[in-house]
Amino acid sequence: MNKPAPHAYDPTTLSDEELVQRAHGELFHVTRAYEELMRRYQRTLFNVCARYLGNDRDADDVCQEIMLKVLYGLKNFEGKSKFKTWLYSITYNECITQYRKERRKRRLVEALSLDPMEEASEERAPKLEEKGGMDRWLVHVGQVDREILVLRFVAELEFQEIADIMHMGLSATKMRYKRALDKLRDKFAAEVEG
């Protein structure tokens, strides 16, 4: 009986874990399993990055970096966590790195500018408040709380997965999540009444 070629399969029918196993054996000669994993998460990855970073240009750049890190790191992924958790851990770290780079760049521009206030306001454009939906509300919470809310609502991760990614305890993650939601509810109620 003839065995099918190792790459003769429909990647859309496989689970993430099965695709990871396939990728271990295929990469770097065949990328079908890797491509299917990226296809599954591409839109959510972009949305997570865009909400972290506040603009599509940076989000697109960071997504490209993430895809490369996954491509080169997938062979070493041991499966100690779900693929999705590992992927969002990489995403979180890349977004934080980009956020810090942009913040350093903004501080340098402000320091070198003749009119720091004018330069600073140009650097922040486009403002999150000018966008609608979730982005409008995320500006009202701190960076860590924003990250927790994005991982919960955009990436749809469980609290334990978020805690693992952010290197926080489960109860601390849930507490920050609840406090951030309470703050947003209060802010929303005040705007509705006002």
Automatic annotation (TrEMBL):
InterPro entries in the record: RNA_pol_sigma-70-like, RNA_pol_sigma-70_dom, RNA_pol_sigma70_r2, RNA_pol_sigma70_r4, RNA_pol_sigma_r2, RNA_pol_sigma_r3/r4-like, WH-like_DNA-bd_sf
Transmembrane segments: none
The keyword Transcription is annotated on this UniProt entry: yes
Entry superkingdom: Bacteria
UniProt keywords, alphabetically: DNA-binding, Sigma factor, Transcription, Transcription regulation
Entry annotated with the keyword Plastid: no
Residues of the RNA polymerase sigma-70 region domain: 37-104, 145-185
Any one GO biological process: DNA-templated transcription initiation
Molecular-function GO term, any one: DNA binding
Family: Belongs to the sigma-70 factor family. ECF subfamily.
NCBIfam families the record matches: PRK09640.1, sigma70-ECF
Protein name, per record: RNA polymerase sigma-70 factor, ECF subfamily
Biological source species: Pseudomonas oryzihabitans
Taxonomic placement: Bacteria, Pseudomonadati, Pseudomonadota, Gammaproteobacteria, Pseudomonadales
